[in-house]
Amino acid sequence: MIKLAISEPSEKQKMFLRARAKHVGYGGARGGGKSWAVRTKAKLLALNYPGIRMLIVRRTYPELINNHVRILKSELKSIAKYNDKDKILIFGNGSTINFTYCAKDKDLDRLQGLEFDVIFLDEATQLSEYQMQSITACMRGVNAFPKRIYYTCNPGGQGHGYIKRIFIDRKFREGENPEEYEFIQALVTDNTALMASQPDYIRQLDALPPKLRAAWRDGAWDVFQGQFFEEFVDNPKSYEERVGTHVIAPFTPPKRWKRFRSFDWGFAKPFSVGWWVMDEDGILYRILELYGCTDTPNEGVRWMPDKVFEEIHRIEQEHPYLKGQRIEGVADPAIWDASTGKSIADTAAEHKVYFTPGDHTRIPGWMQVHYRLAFDEHGIPMMYVFSTCKAFIRTMPLLVYSDTRPEDLDTSMEDHVADEVRYLCMSNPLPPRETEKHIRRQYDPLDLDKDDFGDGRDKYTFYRL
């Protein structure tokens, strides 16, 4: 019998090693010992279940090599052999640990036709929901081995929303059994080995900017670094108590308030329609929406244009918020493209749904959305969302910044609501809200006026931003 020596796990790592659920989530903060837990669990399964097939996944190849392959090769050099060509560790008892990375969807092609008993998605939130579901579909086989998927994760990344839904919020969809999901929250303070070897690590986390500190040190899932609309606050309140939030309970808007409709076309991807009102102070309220998405996020219902605009017209004729009201429509100018025949805008007009072309300039458009979401000194934003507008509330907080274009968002994500919101905001532009900030003065050596306090205190200049 082969005996494997492992270091003493923390209490949370012990919970992970003993977990028996089909889907096991582990982590929530930096320094929780996630990669160690993955490697240790894989080694124990390999030795206890001869012939078991396992897969370890990271987003990039360098992460895969540095966090798992090199370490496992060293630890198992007398127990398992590594095949570099196929990226697989083969144990003497027939058990295997395969390794792969998934930086892009096309990387999934390497898994076609493969079957695994146990899959580890290390740093799962760095993968998209589509990638995670595609990889986990490889967990199958007609044998008695355990069938499990282990997810290690921190808040943030493109898969944040999916991991938060199944493990933190536990909002399950049809076909998902709540009893099969278990989450083990591990913070840096749970990692006794790290605390002993690097006692200053927690101080490094304490020194991070607030949002990054909340995610990496405290494991907070409501905010995360890289979040594009970090201003958005989903804390439902009534209209009368609307300070400090963007989400409010529905109310019947006065007929005197202007009505708007914003639209982003989609077929294979979702289409998005938002209906809005604007009060006397110029504050926008998203009062209704129609979002053409299946139960799978970012998958369109594939409605033809006639059906989309027939439904929009029906809603506007029947809904008490809109019935009999004049509605100004704004849409992506791409719907006026008639290069392949009748344009989508022409089809809309046939159903008495009219639009003007929106300004689709991206960076200024996103800044207008930021201006609308910003709170004034009294905690009042220039945009509210009815709590019934589920697509807005679900998708907007999950959008992240582009890796390649500063100030833009990642267009590979579910950004269809955000796009039509941007068109509306650009058609009703706001100046930036003025806030007074203190900025430390950078002294010039020739500045004879420096330090005229006479006591060495730093001088500050006031800037209006």
How many distinct folded domains? 2
CATH structural class of the largest domain:
Alpha Beta
**Element string (H = helix, E = strand):** HEHEHEEEEHEHEHHHEEEEHEHEHEHHEE
Strand composition percent: 15-25%
- Helix/strand/pairing category: alpha/beta
Biggest sheet layout: 8 strands, mixed
Arithmetic mean of pLDDT:
87
Description:
This protein is α/β, with parallel strands linked by helices. The protein has 2 domains: 11-216, Rossmann fold, CATH 3.40.50; 239-427, Nucleotidyltransferase, domain 5, CATH 3.30.420. It is built from 13 helices and 17 strands. The strands form 3 sheets. It has an 8-stranded mixed beta sheet with strand order 3-4-5-2-6-7-1-8, with helices on both faces. A 7-stranded mixed beta sheet has the order 9-15-12-11-10-13-14. α10 links the parallel β13 and β14.
Descriptive key words:
465 residues, alpha/beta, Rossmann fold, Nucleotidyltransferase, domain 5, 2 domains, eight-stranded mixed β-sheet, seven-stranded mixed β-sheet, 13 helices, 27% helix, disordered C terminus
